TrEMBL record:
Keyword Zinc: no
InterPro entries referenced in this protein's UniProt entry, alphabetically: CoA-transferase_III_domain, CoA-Trfase_fam_III, CoA-Trfase_III_dom3_sf, CoA-Trfase_III_dom_1_sf
Keywords, in A-Z order: Transferase
Protein species of origin: Pacificibacter marinus
Protein name: Formyl-coenzyme A transferase
Length: 397
């Protein structure tokens, strides 16, 4: 038994933030119906890293498992009628359209709540549904840049750089997932549905809870150092260091442990505040000079033996091969009808009684249009005529 078995989610979202939130609900067992334009959702046509699959690109594949696809033109009257029927029997609706689009398509909260007042309606935007930036596109890189996150990493004098992941999309997805679940819990208790709003700017801002509070409470501005990832609010030598054959990460300023592990007497007895804050660039230089004399494996063993918080800097290949990842079963593998054997990151929460499940992989455009319409009582003949007039897309059998 999965937690959300029996719940229906209508996922009208595009790209990453919305689809990932809906996928999480699907992983918990909900029947997620992906409502996409007749020619397929945006992400089907644009893939991270140009990662092409056979019929489904890897980006789409990784964000849309456990969903059924209904390809439908929401701008048509017939299409809209079908959506209204689906809304009447659904629990959650998710959209992350650009401002104004939900109104244009007639799937705004007021319209859908009039059909189903118990609906949990999750609306995701870039900056908020109102306010000065309402018309701007909500895009990960732009939000990483604007949120101050970029200036918390990298060296003084270097151009700001984004994280190597769609961090803002991901944290916005998790906020939407949390919001949907909390609203469902409220609905279980009271019977009330409601609108749940999430935006990318607030999601990435609140992700930086500690870092921003250093500024807003402590009054300490962001200051970049000569070392990468040397946040002004974390004591040296928190960062990455070159070894003879690679890189390692060191987290805490345990100078006696570092001194013993690195055969570096100069580090012994240093004051954590003086060396960690005041003399931070000098401290980094000392640790850098010491670490580079060792091979990665050797220095990590030495640091571990001294209890210094340290670890390897992995590539994705290293990560995927890691024994703890294998032990945790972090990735899921399954056979996909068109893509073959698929391995992607799974669902990260383990429930003692109600495990998540991967029931099927990402659908082809319109793969389940017929099934979903038949469930609504639409006849074969009407389905054919909707297809002939371009209102729906179906998978060619
Ligand atoms: C990502 C966006 C910038 C993309 O903007 P757009 O290209 O304008 O896409 P939109 O989805 O908003 O809408 C495009 C048009 O498709 C139409 N549309 C959409 N679905 C349908 C269906 N089923 N039928 C008919 N028409 C449809 C819709 O009415 C719009 O047309 P018209 O009515 O004629 O206008 C924006 O959606 C956005 O800011 N979203 C909120 C923030 C967010 O979640 N961003 C995702 C980040 S992920 C990411 O990719 C990243 O960060 O990188």
């Amino acid at each position: 038994m999965t937690i959300l078995k029996g719940y229906t989610v209508l996922d009208c979202s595009i790209a990453m933030a919305g689809p990932l939130a809906a996928q999480r609900l699907g992983d918990l067992g909900a029947d997620v119906i992906k409502i996409e334009p007749v020619n397929g959702e945006w992400q089907r046509h644009t893939a991270a890293g140009d990662a092409k699959g056979n019929e489904i690109n890897v980006s789409f594949l990784s964000l849309n498992r456990n969903k059924r696809s209904l390809a439908i033109d929401l701008k048509s009257d017939e299409g809209h009628k079908i959506i209204r029927q689906l809304v009447a029997k659904s629990d959650v609706f998710i959209q992350n359209y650009r401002a104004g689009v939900a109104d244009r398509l007639g799937v705004d909260y007021d319209t859908l709540a009039a059909i189903n007042p118990n609906l949990v309606y999750v609306s995701m935007s870039g900056f908020g549904e109102t306010g000065p930036y309402v018309k701007r596109p909500g895009q990960d890189l732009l939000l990483q840049a604007m949120s101050g996150a970029m200036l918390s990493a990298g060296r003084k004098g270097e151009a700001p750089q984004a994280a190597g992941q769609y961090l803002v999309d991901a944290v916005t997805a998790y906020s939407a997932f949390e919001g949907a679940l909390a609203a469902l819990l409220h609905r279980e208790r009271t019977g009330e549905g409601q609108k749940v709003e999430v935006n990318m700017l607030d999601a990435i801002t609140t992700l930086q809870m500690q870092e921003l509070s250093v500024f807003t409470v402590g009054g300490v501005p962001q200051t970049r150092s000569d070392e990468p990832h040397a946040h002004s609010y974390i004591r040296a030598p928190y960062g990455t260091f070159k070894t003879r054959n690679g890189y390692i990460a060191i987290a805490m300023p345990d100078f006696d442990g570092l001194s013993r592990a690195l055969d570096a007497p100069a580090l012994s007895g240093l004051d954590v505040d003086q060396a960690g804050w005041t003399d931070r660039d000098q401290t980094f230089a000392m640790v850098r000079e010491a670490v580079v004399k060792f091979n990665t494996d050797d220095v990590l063993k030495r640091l571990e033996a001294e209890g210094v918080w340290s670890g390897p800097v992995y590539s994705y290949a290293d990560l995927v091969a890691d024994p703890q990842i294998a032990h945790n079963q972090t990735f899921v593998e399954y056979d996909h009808p068109t893509e073959g054997r698929v391995k992607t990151p799974g669902f990260p929460i383990r429930f003692g009684r109600t495990p998540s499940s991967i029931r099927y992989g990402a659908p082809l455009t319109g793969e389940h249009t017929d099934d979903i319409l038949k469930d609504l009582g639409v006849s074969e003949q009407d389905i054919q005529s909707l297809a002939d007039t371009g209102v729906i897309g179906r998978r060619e059998k």
